[in-house]
């Protein structure tokens, strides 16, 4: 069946898989100590324009959020996130599992506001009993957000200023980073992110890899004994090459950006088709995820021919659903969708 | 200095201390296996009108919230609480320390609304991805709330109905329970609470004891190996008698209710004095805590003669402050306050 | 360089990789809900001769130990393991990270003794203060062990009897299970393991997969909300297909057993070469890992041409080193080793 | 009934209770910010001969071990302890609950050997895979030990040297410290302990208080945000005065030492009686606990008139039991024991 259900419906981009096949028989040391990991890290540093960056590979998004947050926070600290942030809503309490609170702030289109973050921290320290409270120790944002929206460069700069003034790290969840960078409506580059964030990750799982996320610590701030922390959380791969080879492929000849651009091109066509068919948008995003409102009867009908994602109920008879494109979305699939919508 | 700073400014009610002195030399087994613990449990069961209740003694409020919540929740569950709930704001992340999320809901005057709780749970199960989320596994309320307000019997009944329909326990934090029960504006009795809640505690620390909270499991639902769980959390007292003797004294001849009633009588006089002096109320509560708004200059002046609690800033030049009465508050102290306000 | 450093030096067995390539473009649901996971589970149930088994796929060995142990133990329980057990020594405290103690018992050649386990549990319950202690709640064994040794069927039966009499699960870590099953010196079959253990896993990472372990709950004892528990620990793969496709390949036409048998054949030849060269064995195992004692000078010399593993110092001038074979070990590599030893 | 069951069978020393009564009505700030806590800390610093010491009060022994260890260890570290150490055996896994491993070493009469500790740490760092292991991050000893035995000054010095050379803290559990200091067979003073340990605690619960332990950080090494850490673990008392007043009393006019000396005097007479009666010693300790071996029939008979502690079975027909003295033990009680033994 044709699927717009998510950006992780297919395996890996063929070029990524090809590299796994080509390197398969090389005997390599385990646990990420191999040459492919080293090479991929170098290529990522170059792509970020951040020669001093420390890069680490992990397997999935929730795992990465859990490990980055729990290793960078000190014990008395929690992480500020939008109420709709992935870490706050759809990770089964993975942050709290490590003993840390997610400090919810209001959101607009999935985004945090720098002034609001600053106000929250100021009020926190104004409270005479703040030693009885959870200290704000990090700011978590996602880019694209859970709604596919993007921070502008000015918004990121404002958040970065607040974080640096308050001396707490700014962490950007880039599970879908490629789609943000290749959006037609962004003024934010990878180098900007490396310059403005203290730590972020470049999503592989949702952008062409079988699995894998590349964490970038931009300020020599990788936690000490990071490998031990990863192992302790059950997340250290014996065959670290699986991640190194894939990221090496993604960051060779700009593949990561190219396949992200393809998904964006497909998303723009998707939006045009949805408009053409008079479908009401819940949120028209500048990236690869589009949220529209459908009558429940239409949802039921359409599901027989096309896969897409349930988001939430919208009144008694309608539902918000999500259509996502990805590197594997084809022109033919869009035409099919047009024909059945 | 005269103090209205809190309801834990003095030691224990003299009658409580007297019992500690009288029983001091009795050789008793440790860890709560003594006759005074047994006797106090029996008296509490009687006071609750709940012969089958299981009673356990713990040392302090945050500890009690942490232990009750973390032993009753299953691993995939979190606890619903008002945004202003003590467990959500002023316990340094003690719940998250045990690996569980506090699921924030909006509050009015510190209270949760049964319909909103029900809606939250319904929406949770409607989400197709709810296995990726934290399950609502308990409802936490405080009575009196952090603002000194009280649930009506009808409100408690509504919450209880929701919880029982959804098969999750209703937990009432009664750190200041006596002041709620003795309020002039309540229709809720201790027996009502025992009938409507699945677990609650009767606060000792803030109601006349040196320390101690009596947890009441009302439905044979004390977690198995509870002593082990308490020990594992570092909370098992070697001399459990310290808690048993105090609660025995508090529940002999109605002392707990009598000293609570005294604090309420003092609070009513306090409110009258504040009104008489034209002080603006932030929240005039039916219990022993009153929240008023003072000019910052007045705060500074008054602090030289009287202790009271800072609550939060209220605009640029004013502050919300808290005055609390307790079992040890005297007529003379109120007269003094009147003379300097 | 020729490497006998471990059994995870190469990528995946070519047949496994081929299946990943062939299925790569199929649009599939995420999180293990795909047809390949379903098919692989069915094939594993068949191979185990256990139609009612519940099979789950995880990514790596430490992760699997951590998740199985922490989801099956109750809060007051710990896991019994040999002092040399992987969970006790080389997993960075991953079990303790989940709040559970590893209860060390003595070992012989990496193995636990059933009578000793039974005695430990008996003594535990004889202690009048056992509610102050960590309850024995599971027995963990590895097969092959960390030393490459194997339990006999009689030994496994004895452990199983103790566990069932004591009503605690027996958990077998099969990170290298294939090499145990294909050993020339074993009377234990996969069906025996499924019959005698309550939960075990079939290692993929060290036996031909890029990553992946298949957990088998043999008695309808998969913990409730297991997906939520996996997500909460950061271990749920978005593209669960990565595991399903690989295990489908491994359990098609007996590939898992065939490649294990090859590694054993290579190991037998390796042992012969080591004997022929007069190398002293520290422990001559019936599986794919061999432990020998070399002069430090010889270690240094040999390392220039061959990779192998450091195990531990053995007196001032000698070292225990490990040679491991795997599915990718070739006749030519053995000949080369013979030539340089 | 006459009881030698433990050193926590009675309430508080009368002088301690008297001070609680005398100060009961003073209005004081909460959470340990009161004058009695401040005064007690000053007196303890003086008694330790360590003007720069940082003193903190906690409620019980397991709680103190849990908090000290989990706040001083870094995430990748565990704590070395004797196999028989209280933290390893009788605290329900309270250390593991905080995510840290107890690293067991062999013991002799409850004690660790400095050379063995040093060897363990050396071997740890020699392992090439030590990033996959739990780092030794602290050494825990108890003094008196769980067997009532004592380290000599030379033994403590040796342990201290090892810890300082390895840059890890030495932590002494002094739940029964007074009985160690007042033993007739010790050359170790409180000042020695303060000089040789990085952190230790002076037990109150078992030495004359209702509850309370005084933690002494000897090298400006109190963890930052310690109050927050205590609150997060549910251990912060609202009425911190309860601990401050008691320790103030214990450290006024040498009461702590005086009542410990009394218990030792009683223990010496107890030993004489046991010898006189031909009772076989399991371990004759220099402090207030004595371990003897009794026929099971004699145990049963004696229990009708005297309380004492079960330790462990000793062959089929005999049992090791413990007799403990304390500040409340009287000459009459000893005479009674003599009469019925």
List the defining traits of the structure above.
alpha/beta, homotetramer, 14 helices, globular, 341 residues, 7-stranded mixed sheet
How would you characterize this protein structure?
Four copies of one chain form a homotetramer. By secondary structure, chain A is α/β, with parallel strands linked by helices. Helix content of chain A is 40%, strand content 19%. Chain A has a seven-stranded mixed sheet with strand order 2-8-7-6-5-3-4, with helices on both faces. A four-stranded antiparallel sheet of chain A has the order 9-10-13-12. The longest helix of chain A has 22 residues. Chain A is globular. The first copy, chain A, starts with a strand and ends with a helix. The model of chain A has no long low-confidence stretch (mean pLDDT 97). Chains in contact: A-B, A-C, A-D, B-C, B-D, C-D. At the A-C interface, strand 1, helix 1, helix 3 and helix 10 of A face strand 1, helix 1, helix 3 and helix 10 of C.
């Amino acid at each position: 069946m044709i699927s717009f259900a998510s950006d992780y419906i297919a395996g890996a981009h063929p070029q990524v898989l090809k590299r796994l096949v080509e390197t398969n028989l090389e005997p390599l040391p385990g646990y990420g100590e191999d040459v492919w990991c080293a090479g991929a890290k170098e290529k990522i540093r170059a792509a970020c324009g951040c020669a001093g960056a420390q890069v680490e590979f992990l397997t999935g998004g929730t795992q990465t959020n859990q490990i980055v947050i729990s290793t960078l926070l000190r014990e008395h600290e929690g992480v500020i996130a939008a109420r709709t942030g992935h870490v706050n809503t759809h990770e089964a309490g993975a942050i709290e599992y490590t003993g840390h609170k997610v400090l919810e702030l209001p959101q607009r289109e999935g985004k945090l506001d720098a002034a609001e973050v600053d106000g929250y921290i100021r009020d926190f320290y104004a409270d005479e009993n703040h030693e009885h409270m959870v200290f704000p120790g990090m700011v978590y944002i996602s880019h694209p957000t859970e709604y596919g929206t993007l921070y502008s460069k000015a918004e990121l700069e404002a958040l970065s200023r607040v974080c640096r003034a308050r001396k707490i790290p700014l962490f950007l969840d880039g599970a879908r980073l490629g789609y943000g960078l290749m959006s037609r409506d962004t003024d934010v580059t990878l180098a900007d992110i490396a310059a403005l964030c203290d730590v972020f990750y470049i999503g592989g799982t949702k952008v062409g890899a079988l699995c894998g996320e590349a964490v970038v610590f931009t300020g020599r701030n990788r936690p000490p004994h990071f490998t031990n922390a990863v192992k302790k959380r059950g997340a250290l791969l014996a065959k670290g090459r699986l991640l190194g080879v894939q990221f090496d492929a993604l960051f060779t000849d700009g593949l990561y950006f190219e396949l992200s651009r393809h998904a964006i091109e497909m998303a723009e066509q998707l939006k045009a088709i949805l408009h053409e068919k008079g479908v009401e948008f819940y949120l028209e995003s500048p990236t690869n995820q589009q949220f529209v409102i459908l009558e429940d009867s239409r949802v039921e009908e359409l599901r027989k021919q096309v896969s897409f994602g349930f988001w939430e109920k919208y009144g008694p008879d309608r539902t918000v659903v999500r259509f996502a494109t990805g590197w594997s979305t084809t022109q033919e699939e869009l035409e099919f969708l047009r024909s059945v919508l």
